[in-house]
Write the structure tokens for this entry.
Amino acid sequence: MTMEFSPENKKKLAEILSRYPTKQAALLPTLWLAQGEFGFISQETMEYVAGLLDISPAHVYGVVTFYTMFHRKPPGKYNLQVCRTLSCALRGSESLLDHLKKKLGIGENETTPDGKFSLCTVECLASCGTAPAMMVNQKYFENLDASKVDEILNGLK
Amino acid sequence: MVPSMSLILTNRVGQPESYTLQVFEKTGGYQSVKKLFSLQPNQVIDEVKNSGLRGRGGAGFSAGLKWSFVPQDTGKPVYLCVNADESEPGTFKDRLLLEDDPHQLIEGIIIACYAIRSHTAYIYIRGEFDLPCQRIRSAVAEAYAKGYLGKNIFKSGYDLDVTIHRGAGAYICGEETALLESLEGKKGQPRIKPPFPAVVGLFGSPTVINNVETLSALPFIINHGAAAYRRFGTEKSPGTKLFSVSGHVNKPGVLEKPLGYPLKDLIEKDCGGVLGGKRLKAVVPGGSSVPVLNAQDVETVKLDYESLMQHGSMLGSGGVIVLHEGVDMLWALRNLSRFYAHESCGQCTPCREGSGWVDKILVRFLREGGTSADIELLKDISNNMMGKTICVLADALAMPVLSYLKKFPEDFAAHFRGKTAQAQMHVL
Ligand SMILES: Cc1cc2nc3c(=O)[nH]c(=O)nc-3n(C[C@H](O)[C@H](O)[C@H](O)COP(=O)(O)O)c2cc1C
Ligand code: SF4
Ligand code: FES
């Protein structure tokens, strides 16, 4: 089956395109729509988006791989992204990461066999005053410690 | 009237529903706009020039002066890009402004656009900012619904469109020309300057890029005048600044202070002192990209452009990272070298290779110990990274490296070969 946006996303795309003088400028917003609808950005998605915006698939590929938030493979249902930068490291992000690795039985950039959790590190999330911080999918969790993390994981069904 | 509590940027922060149009208008919001449309754009530029407001994104360039560089005779549209990419380690103040007072930013955007005669603004917001993005999105929608954005805003005959553009994870997109590239749908790779964005910017048109905090100060300046703004701060560094304080303090957070405020008071009085009653070791005063201060510097330095410069550092983004005596500065520096090596966009050899080498040397230093030759090599690489690249990301690593080496040589010496076991309190 060929890939296509839902009618709702087609409407959103039209609105996005009306905000820019070039189609190419809509690339990041369109990729966000695509990742939202399809869960990740596959080769096929890149070709589809390229067609929509009259740009080359190679250009789309270059952009997708430049930015860290576009996934080329589906991440786990809950993508745990632990900040590793200085302010969080000063407040214990290293031991937090170790705790998560042990608890989930996976390393960085891995997903649990049931597909439920992925684990990775990210750079400063602008939560330095509430460090250590992590993002689960798009949501911030702050002022973390091992017991708080356990509680959060238990709440993720 | 200047509200009594009162500073300039954070009066609504923490108030219930401060992000709604209703609360904003009840507390004096959008008042400056009436006055704005009775002024000529050049008068607005002059007022902001006279206020002495400098860019709060890191570079500290005069806001009014930057606006005055925009040519008005090109026949092309003029754009405003709002830099809400906030990714400088240690900095979390724009997030607060976006979450708690998004309408104040929109009011600032209206002022800036009118001054530079722009009818189109883009807010480039980092991809991780979910709540801040929702807040600014709802605020923009409310403003459109009320006729404060769109056609004929405030029935003034002036049109202004504001579009929110979400980034997707890349520190470098905070650099203004990388931001433009990213907005155009490309990789965020900085452009060679000149031409400067004021002349050839977004889509080849004249463009001003301003930080969220810079723009959020404008309603006050238009409402109360440049002189009122200058009542805060010092002669050379007027106004207030947001300081994001993190690391080893008892009460971290964002504080608005007049420029010239003593760093020591910020740590001791406002942030409850050093965590666990420990001794202060170092402070990174302006985001991770600026040279580090030692405890002796902290005794005397004031938080303004000049005093920080005299102490060999910079105000930067106002991200204050506090480190206590338990921190190994080699470990801290390596944390930052990993960041810059990861975030280099790779266009310039001194940056791409230099950041990678610095990181590798520091890792080896930490794991296996180093030698004085390694120190010389680090200095050499750093000196070759500075002033030689398209943007200053390379300098943003090189300057810290040189300053950590200069101010904390004993922490590196402790890792000289043969001494490693004793020195490694933080093992990677
Ligand atoms: C590597 C790098 C990253 C930057 N990141 C940001 C940022 O996240 N936010 C920001 O406002 N400015 C950032 N800047 C500064 C911008 O290039 C630019 O100076 C600023 O947005 C201009 O606005 P202002 O004059 O109002 O400060 C960065 C600069 C560099 C070199
Ligand atoms: S200095 Fe580094 S980040 Fe800046 S343009 Fe060159 S390679 Fe890219
Ligand atoms: S260092 Fe972790 S949020 Fe800034």
Residues B 172, 190, 344-348, 351-352, 389-391, 393-394 surround iron/sulfur cluster (ligand 2) (CB under 6 Å). The first strand of chain A starts at residue 78 and ends at 83. Helices of chain A lie at 7-17, 27-38, 43-53, 57-66, 86-90, 93-104, 146-155. Chain A touches chain B at residues 19-22, 24-29, 31-32, 53, 55, 59, 62-63, 66-70, 84-87, 89-91, 94, 122-131, 135, 138-140 (CB under 8 Å).
